[in-house]
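Duplicate of earlier report; NADH-quinone oxidoreductase subunit A input re-posted below.
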Amino acid sequence: MALYTPILILGAIAALFAVGSVGIALLIGPRRYNRAKLEAYECGIEPVEPAGHTGQRFPIKYYLTAMLFIVFDIEIVFLYPWAVAFDRMGIFALVEMMLFMATVFVAYAYVWRRGGLEWD
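Output:
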């Protein structure tokens, strides 16, 4: 248990900081609400009526961009352990990571070519 004590203390400090920050913001923050502040905000999309009341299509571009971010973010998650253990794995790890990176770059080039990175 002594091995985990610093981690538990750090977790407790982080939790206290998070709860304390929210609590202080609630206590001393301004309370001037208006219609604009009470409306939902999502990625710059103008608020619309509930789905059943309008005939508008919902722009899916925001979610495509988020999914692309997640895919390329996962690539970084795989790079960290490889970088830490690279010394012990040798040339095999280098070849495998180059194949992985080539696959990711092919996917990136495909998304770029298809216009998935264009915002307009």
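The longest helix spans residues 61-89.

Merging into the original ticket.
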